[in-house]
Amino acid sequence: MQKDHSNFPAVPSVTGLIHHPYIPPAGFEAPQPGVFKASTVYFPTVAAMRQREWKDKSAYTYGLHGTPTTYLLEERLSALEGGLQCMLVPSGLAALALVALAVLKTGDEVLIPDNAYGPNKALADGELRHFGITHRFYDPMDPDDLSRQITPSTRLVWLEAPGSVSMEFPDLPEMVRHCRERGVLCALDNTWGAGLAFKPFDLLGDGAGGQGSLAVDISAHALTKYPSGGGDVLMGSVITRDAALHLQIKLCHMRLGLGVAANDAETVLRSLPSIGLRYAAHDQTARALAAWWQTQPQCAQLMHPAFEGAPGHAHWQALCDREPGTGLAAGLFSVMIDARFSQAQVDAFCDGLKLFKIGYSWGGPVSLVVPYDIAAMRQAWPGHLKSGTLVRFSTGLESAQDLILDLHQAVQAHLPMA
Ligand SMILES: *Cc1c(COP(=O)(O)O)cnc(C)c1O
Questions:
Q1: What is the number of other CB atoms lying within 10 angstroms of the CB of residue 18?
Q2: Does domain 274-414 correspond to CATH entry 3.90.1150.10?
Q3: CATH number for the 63-273 domain, one of 3.40.640.10, 1.25.40.10, 3.40.50.2300, 3.30.1490.270?
Q4: Residue 60 reports pLDDT greater than 90
Q5: pLDDT tens-digit profile of 152-187?
Q6: Which atom of ligand 1 is nearest to the CA of 222?
Q7: 191 CB less than 6 Å from ligand 1?
Q8: Which residue of 112, 186, 325, 346 has the fewest CB atoms within a 10 Å radius of its CB?
Q9: Whether residue 189 has its Cβ less than 6 Å from ligand 1
Q10: How many CB atoms lie within 10 A of CB 86?
């Protein structure tokens, strides 16, 4: 039966409310920038809409393509990493995917370090493979292996320093040199360095991307980690110093619709001023814990790039510690628990920790622990890794002493030596 809509109560008019004439005075300044939220952005006239320049941040077109809030964050992140252009995306993994989709086409090949962030490998084996883009893994500790694997169809080389879980620090400048010589684009997943431990666009420390400097082409970064610092925001960035490459990435970004929410951008803007202090604090705590592990017989191998004997330590020194004793490292390290302990014992140790929570990601205030199955993650067991069960720790901002007491009690309870 047809409903009778004719005698609905009149809707009160809010036209005056929606088109209210009041405009607050310009010139408001405070420590934090305002948050601008929009899908629609107004143009004063149709002609202005048609002429609007969207490529260089001189104007606005649509919320998806940038607001004052996202422009501001992009500029600050570019400055932090020594880049010139930045695109924000909804996660660190989206940053890696954007790079791949922007520069690769059917028939191309991408080279990935065997110790790379796992989901980057999964993307290559999933969508990229379906699109007819091949991939191969290279030995991250052997720049010659990378060089050997570059063929005429190699279009992109991924770099990561250090590897996500096993923490080997590669000879980054040498690998970038190989890419330069062969004319292949190189993209660094710079989540660990965060623009603080080293400068991805000035690897020799002599030119900030200018003439004579050695630079990656692209720095991708999971802002989810240190720039957010809260364990509460997902975001990523893709930073470049080449206008044409940036435009290629920007067009792909537009076509994919990879916008970020203004409130999330604001959260990162709020955390950014303290990133230097937090990074140094995470680093200091991680080194205190790593030093403690070195004294424990349960530790077959310590994987922290700032420690003597750790895989790639000399490369970390050369890139990050040019004035010895001043180098930074993130709050991340792994321990190979001696092979005499079963997976179940190592799991019980992780479960037995009270301050360390079990969970992915890192960079927030809470310390985290995850055991990893290296055999399942690599093509072959790497020669430089001892046998055992790998456990990765990421330090939060708790007191190092409290964290060491926590490690001590869980080791005593679950990893007995006798
Ligand atoms: C966390 C992480 C990512 C992905 O970031 P999300 O925001 O979680 O998608 C990429 N690379 C590295 C090295 C990471 O640690």
A1: 7
A2: yes
A3: 3.40.640.10
A4: yes
A5: 999 999 999 999 899 999 999 999 999 999 999 999
A6: 5
A7: yes
A8: 325
A9: yes
A10: 24
